[in-house]
Amino acid sequence: MSRVCSVCGKGRMSGNAVSHSNRKTRRSWAPNVQKVKVANENGSVKEVYVCTRCLRSGKVNRA
Asked: pLDDT tens digits for 10-19?
């Protein structure tokens, strides 16, 4: 599953996991992406992945 929002393009971010002894290892953060049915302008219904920030702000028309 591609963890990228189809509205805003938000995707995976990377950084360091820092332990108590200050050792660094690479880690990643994935956005909260949900598979929702979206109604297009022409009335067709399509399933896309949308982040919860875009869902909550009303940037998509759910079908």
From this structure: 999 999 999 9
